[in-house]
Amino acid sequence: MRMKRTFLQSLSVDSNMAYELYDLDDNPKPLNPNMIRGIRFALLCFLGIVMAGAVSILAIGIWTLEAEYGNKQISEMINAKLYEVDSYMLIIGGAAIMIVSIIGLCGVMKEYRCLVGLHLGLLAFVSVMLFVAGVLGYVLVSQLENKVRDRMESAVVNYYGVNVETDSDNRVITKAWDKVQQNFECCGVYGNEGSFNSWYIYQRSQWFTQGHSNGSHVPESCCGTRNNINECTGRTNATEGSPPLSKPPISGDPSTWGYTLYTKGCFDVLDPYMHRTGIVIGTTAIVVGIFMLVELVLSVCLYRTLPEKL
């Protein structure tokens, strides 16, 4: 015979002392059927919302990874995997949320307590991972000014164009920089034609100082057209006082150079895209995570009302 724990709670009614007996059995008392139906309906609604959010997260993860200015490209440029990892977390998280939502949907529709319980456990784990991805998204934004620019500068100075035939990492970095400089019409890291950290940074890089440049002062990817490419890269003399043979600051009108040398740093060009990517990742992950927390609470409520089925 099962022992039931009971206690007496003192209640004061109209100045007279009365006592009411409370049942604290481990199994909760049945709820009102209308309340149970309301919980099921609300849970189904949130399951649908979270499912739609999972599709959005999966799409955003793929977009931020594969876009031409996406996390994969940035990771290759700065020789760091943090950006790429965040996109992969979104892809895995989106797929996992879809699976968890399907399990929860089956459990709610069939009223299987074991499926709802499995959904609860998986939902708690995925929610944590999603919040981590969201926080990472905002961290990426906050680190733009103090870390990413430094990593970009280090990549250009130490790895760009150095032993690309034998060093696969340097080859990936070099190709990434060439692609970005051509697509976004930029050169170097930051600043403009008068900066030592835009086009002129290549002249203090190992690519230039160790003789890997074959006489070029800037890469060909910093030039707008193939016309006058030797003058643009500095292999031959160009207009006196013009880059890349002359040091900053540069005087004169760029239209008189006779060639197109990109002089704006790539960080300055990519900065808006990286900000947008970080904010999109962080906001989406956290918003969907909030809906998942509500879903978690509703799942717990429903789980406690369902009988165990053999």
TrEMBL record:
Family as reported in the entry's similarity comment: Belongs to the tetraspanin (TM4SF) family.
Gene3D superfamilies in UniProt: Tetraspanin
A cellular component term, taken from the record's GO annotations: plasma membrane
Name used for this protein in its record: Tetraspanin
UniProt keyword annotation of Transmembrane present: yes
Principal localisation: membrane
Transmembrane regions: 41-65, 85-108, 120-141, 279-303
Compartment(s) where it occurs, according to its Swiss-Prot or TrEMBL record: Membrane
InterPro entries: Tetraspanin/Peripherin (IPR018499), Tetraspanin_animals (IPR000301), Tetraspanin_EC2_sf (IPR008952)
